[in-house]
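task queued by scheduler; priority normal; single chain, no ligands, no partner chains; default sampling; output format set to C-alpha cells
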Amino acid sequence: MSGAVASVRSAAWSERAAVVAVFLANGIGIGAWAACIPALKARLALSDGALGLVLFAFAVGAVLLMQLAARLTRRLGPAKATRAAALLFGAALSLPAFAPDLTTLVVAAFAMGAANGLLDVTMNGYASGVERRWGAAIMSSFHAAWSAGGLAGAALGGALLAFGPVWTLGGAAATVVALAALAWAWLEEGDASPPLPEARIAPPVGALLPLCVAALLCMGCEGAMGDWAGVYLMETARTPQTMAPIGFAAFSATMVVGRLLGDNAVRAWGRARVVRWGATFAAAGLALAVADPRLAPATLGFALVGAGLSNVVPALFSAAAGRTPVPAAGVAMVATAGYAGLLSGPVVIGAIAQGASLRLGIAFLILCAGVAATTARSLRA
C-alpha cells in the first residue's frame, strides 16, 4: 500500500517538475528578449516610436494566438499542445536576432509574440490541472519559476550580449528547447487539465471594476519593465549595452523572492494591504529611477518595482474569484484587463517616449502604480 502511494506521489512530483521546467523555459526566453532589446534598438538605429511598433507587433501576435490556444488544446490534448507551443517558442525566439531592418524585425517580433501567447495559455491551462490534482495551491510556485527564468535569461543575455544578439537569443533558444525536451516525457496526456473554454474577452462589471483597473495598471507596469528597463538604463543612465540587462534582472530577482513569500504575506496582512503597499512600493521604485537615472539608483528602483508588484496580481485574481457566482468568470474579467495592460503598457511607453522622452514615459508609470494603490480599499469587501 505504501509503495503504491509513493509511486503516485513520485509521478505527481515529476509532472510538477516538468511544468516548472516549461515555465522556467518561457521566462528564460522572455528575459533574454528583454536583454536584447537595447542592442537591437542600437544596431538598427530605431527611434522610440519604431521600437514601440516592434513591441506592438509582439503584443498583436500574442493576443491572436491566445484566441486559438484552447482550440489547439482540445484537438491535441493538454500535454501535446504544451510541448508543441514550447518548441515553437524556442524556434521563434532567435528570429529577431537575424532581422536586418525594421520591417523584418516587426515580422519576427510578431512570430515570437504569437508563439509566446500560445505557450502562455497552454502552460497555464496545464498547470491549473496539475494544481487541481495536487490538491493544494501551487500555482505561485510555477509563476515563481517563470520569474526565476526571467532573471536567468537576463543574466544569460548580459553574459552573451558582447557577442551579439544572435548568440544571446540563440543561446536562450537552445536552452528553451533543452528544457522542453527534458519535460517532454513527464507531461502526461491524461486528465492533466480541465477542458479550456473558447477564449473570450470578459469585460469588467460591478464590484470587479476596481480590481480590473488595478490589474490593468500593475501589469502594464510589469510589461514596461521587461521591454523598457534596459533601454532606459542604456539611453538615460548612459549604461553600456552589456550592463543594460541588469535593470530587468533586478526586477526579476525581487519578483522571485516576493512570489516565494507571497502566500505568507497575504495570510499575515490580507489582500488589501498586499495590493496597497505593493503598488506603493512599485511607485516609489519608479520615482527613484526617474529622479536619479544613474545605474545604481535606477537599478535599485527597478528592484523595488519587482518586489512591490510580485504579489499584487495573484491577490487580485484570488479576490476576483470570490466576487462572481462562477469563480472562473471573475478571474477571466481581471485576467482580460491584466493582459491588456501587460501587452499595451510597453506600447504606450513607446508612444510617450517618441512624443516627449523615455524618462517621462517611466514617470507615467508612477501615476499608474499610484492609482492602482488606491483601489486596494475595494478588496476589503
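post-processing summary
- The two ends are 47 Å apart (CA to CA).
- Residues 201-381 form a domain with the Growth Hormone; Chain: A; fold (CATH 1.20.1250.20).
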